[in-house]
Write a structure and sequence with these properties.
- The complex is a heterodimer.
- By secondary structure, chain A is mostly helical.
- Chain A contains twelve helices and no strands.
- In chain A, α3 runs parallel beside α7.
- Chain A starts with a helix and ends with a helix.
- By secondary structure, chain B is of the alpha/beta class.
- Chain B has two domains: 221 residues, Rossmann fold (3-Layer(aba) Sandwich), CATH 3.40.50.300; 62 residues, Alpha-Beta Plaits, CATH 3.30.70.
- Classes of the chains: A mainly alpha, B alpha/beta.
C-alpha cells in the first residue's frame, strides 16, 4: 500500500519533468515521419511504418527506463530527499518497489500513448484494425520492465553514470544472449560451453521479448512462446528487484 | 519511562580510496526519559548527526544497539511514533508545500479525509499559511526548515528528533523553533535535538549531552553542568573607610579592584555574599551592584574541548 503511494509520487515527478515530453514528442515524430519514408519506398508501406514505429517505442521506452531509472534511488540519496521519507513508517523494500512501480507506470502510460499512435496510423494505412501490433507492444513493455528493474538495482548502490553504462551493457549483451549460446555451441569446448550457459541463464534474455519483426512480416508467433517470454520477463524483474531490495536494506545513508 | 536508550552504540564509516575504517562514534551510552527535552551539543563533526541517523534507522550501528520506545531503532513500529527533521533538509522541489505534506501524511498512514485539515493546521502552526500552494523549489531556506518541522509533526509523534533545527534561521525563526520545542514538551512529547548553538540549549533543555570527537564528554541537567566551584558573585561597594575597605578586600576571592571611591570584590556562594553585604552596610557603605558570575554552558563546552585536545 505504501509502495503504491511512493509509486504515485514517482509518477508525478516524471510527468512534471519536461524531458519526458521531449522524448514522447520525439517518438511521435518518428512514428509520424515513417509515413514519409513509406511513401518513397516501393511496396510494403505499412510494414515500414510498423517496423519503424515499434523501433521508436522500444528506443524511447529504453531511454526513459535507463535515464530515469538510474537516478531513481541514487538521486534521492544524493539530494537527501530520502531522509524524511525513509524515516516514515515504511519498510525500505516499500521504497524500492514504489520507485520501480512509479517508473513502470510512467512507462506504461508512454508506451500506451505511442502504441495507440502507431496502431491508429498503421490501421489507417491498411484500412483495417492492425490489432496484431498489440502483442509486440506488450512485450516491449515487459522488456522495458526488465531494463527498469536492472537500472533500479544499479541505482541502489552506484552513481547514475556508472549505472547507465552497466545497464546499457547488460541490455546489449542480453539482446545477444541467443547468439552467445549459439556461438559456444558451435565453436567452444566443454569449459567455454559451461561458462556461456551459466551466462545465458544469468543475463536478461531480451531477444525472446522481441517479436516485432516476426509480427510485421506476418510470421506466426505461438501463444505459448509469447506467454513463456512474458513469464520469463516477469520472473526476471522479480529476481532483480529482490536483489535491489536486499542491497538497499543494508545500505547506510550517510 | 525510557524513551531513548543506547548501549555501546558505535559507528565506523569507510573513507577514502582504500575504504579505511574511521570510527565516528565511540561506545555511546545514553538514556533519555519520556517527556524530556534533550539537547545534544557538540561542534561540527563530533558525531551528532551520526547519532541521530542511528536513532532514526538511516544507518546501521557497527556494534552496540539503539532502542527507541522499547523497540529497535529504525523499525516500522518505532518510525510510526517518531518525527525527524534532518539537518539542512531537502525535499522534492517539484511538489508544492501542501502536496509534500499530503504525501508524507499518506506515508504515515493518515486517511485522506484527515490529511487536508492536518496539513492546513500544520502549515499554520509553522507560519506557512498561504504558502502551501507554492512549489518547494521557490521556498527560502527558512521556509524549507518550517516545512521540515511540519512533516516531522504530521503523525503527532511521541519523540521528535531534530538535527540542528535552528540552523539557517533568523533570530525570529530561532525563537519560534524554541517556542515550538517548549510547546512540544508541554504536550508531553520527548524532544531530542542536536545543536552547536549553546544559548538555544540553555533556554529549552531539561538535560544536555556534550559530544566531542565521537565520544560523550558530559551529560547532565543544564543546572548541573552550569554549576561549578568557580561560581562567583561580584559586589561593588562605595563610601567605605580605608580600614573597612581593607577588611572587605581581605574577604575577596580574587584581587579586589579599586577605582576612586569604589571597590569591587568577589565572593563564593551565597553565604559569602551575606557576610559581605552585612559588612558593607555595617561600615556605612553603599552597595552598587551584585553580579552573580555563573559559568555558562559555553565555558563548560569550551573547557571540555580544551581537555579533549590535551
Amino acid at each position: 500500500m505504501k509502495s503504491l503511494t511512493i509509486a504515485l509520487n514517482t509518477f508525478r515527478e516524471a510527468i512534471r519533468d519536461r524531458i519526458l515530453y521531449s522524448l514522447l514528442v520525439f517518438a511521435l515524430a518518428m512514428i509520424g515521419g515513417s509515413v514519409i519514408l513509406s511513401k518513397i519506398s516501393v511496396g510494403g508501406e505499412a510494414k515500414i511504418i510498423k517496423d519503424l514505429g515499434l523501433a521508436a517505442i522500444g528506443l524511447v521506452g529504453m531511454l526513459i527506463a535507463v535515464f530515469i531509472g538510474v537516478g531513481l534511488v541514487h538521486k534521492e540519496i544524493e539530494r537527501r530527499t530520502l531522509y524524511t521519507i525513509i524515516t516514515k513508517p515504511i519498510r525500505r523494500a516499500d521504497f524500492v518497489l514504489g520507485k520501480f512501480l512509479g517508473l513502470a507506470l510512467t512507462l506504461a502510460v508512454n508506451v500506451a500513448v505511442m502504441g495507440a499512435a502507431l496502431l491508429l496510423l498503421a490501421s489507417a494505412m491498411e484500412a483495417r484494425l492492425t490489432w496484431e501490433l498489440l502483442l509486440p507492444v506488450t512485450l516491449i513493455f515487459i522488456k522495458l520492465m526488465v531494463v527498469t528493474a536492472i537500472a533500479v538495482l544499479f541505482s541502489t548502490f552506484s552513481t547514475p553514470t556508472l549505472s547507465a553504462i552497466f545497464t546499457l551493457a547488460l541490455v546489449v549483451v542480453g539482446s545477444l544472449a541467443e547468439d552467445l549460446k549459439l556461438f559456444a555451441a558451435t565453436f567452444g569446448g566443454p569449459v567455454l560451453q559451461t561458462v556461456v550457459v551459466a551466462l545465458y541463464l544469468v543475463l536478461p534474455n531480451l531477444a525472446s521479448l522481441d517479436v516485432g519483426s516476426a509480427v510485421v512480416h506476418g510470421r506466426p508467433v505461438p501463444a505459448a512462446a509469447a506467454g513463456l517470454a512474458a513469464g520469463y520477463g516477469f520472473a526476471y524483474v522479480a529476481a532483480i528487484l529482490a536483489g535491489a531490495v536486499w542491497i538497499f536494506q543494508y545500505r547506510d545513508f550517510q | 519511562m525510557v524513551a531513548i536508550q543506547t548501549e555501546n552504540l558505535t559507528k565506523d564509516y569507510r573513507a577514502g580510496f582504500w575504504r579505511r575504517r574511521v570510527r565516528v562514534l565511540h561506545d555511546l551510552n545514553l538514556e533519555v526519559q519520556a517527556g524530556e527535552v534533550f539537547g545534544f551539543l557538540g561542534p561540527n563533526g563530533a558525531g551528532k548527526t551520526t547519532t541521530l541517523k542511528l536513532l532514526t534507522g538511516l544507518i546501521h550501528p557497527t556494534t552496540g544497539s539503539a532502542t527507541v520506545l522499547g523497540e529497535p531503532a529504525g523499525s516500522v513500529r518505532v518510525k510510526a511514533r517518531i518525527g525527524f527533521l534532518p539537518e539542512n533538509p531537502s525535499f522534492y522541489d517539484y511538489l508544492t508545500g501542501a502536496e509534500y505534506l499530503d504525501y508524507c501524511g499518506a506515508l504515515v498512514g493518515l486517511p485522506r479525509v484527515l490529511r487536508r485539515e492536518r496539513v492546513r493546521a500544520l502549515l499554520e502552526q509553522v507560519g506557512l499559511s498561504g504558502r502551501g500552494a507554492l512549489q518547494l523549489r521557490k521556498y527560502s531556506k527558512g521556509m524549507l526548515q518550517r516545512i521540515g518541522l511540519a512533516q516531522a509533526l504530521l503523525n503527532e509523534p511521541a519523540i521528535i528528533f531534530l538535527d540542528e533545527p535552528m540552523s539557517g534561521l533568523d533570530p525570529i525563526g530561532r525563537k519560534e523553533v524554541r517556542d515550538l520545542i517548549l510547546r512540544l514538551r508541554e504536550q508531553g512529547r520527548t524532544v531530542f535535538f542536536s545543536t552547536h548553538i549553546i544559548p538555544d540549549v540553555e533556554v529549552v533543555c531539561d538535560r544536555v549531552g556534550i559530544i566531542l570527537g565521537g565520544r560523550l564528554a558530559a551529560v547532565g541537567r543544564v543546572e548541573e553542568l552550569l554549576a561549578s566551584p568557580l561560581e562567583q558573585i561580584e559586589v561593588t561597594a562605595s563610601g567605605l573607610s580605608p580600614e573597612a575597605a581593607e577588611a572587605l578586600a581581605a574577604r575577596s576571592v580574587v584581587p579586589p579592584v579599586r577605582g576612586g571611591y569604589r571597590i569591587l570584590v568577589a565572593v563564593k556562594g551565597e553565604e559569602g555574599l551575606g557576610e559581605i553585604l552585612r559588612a558593607v552596610l555595617h561600615a556605612g557603605g553603599r552597595v552598587h551592584s551584585v553580579i552573580p558570575h555563573r559559568r555558562t554552558l559555553e565555558e563548560v563546552f569550551l573547557d571540555r574541548i580544551r581537555e579533549e585536545k590535551r
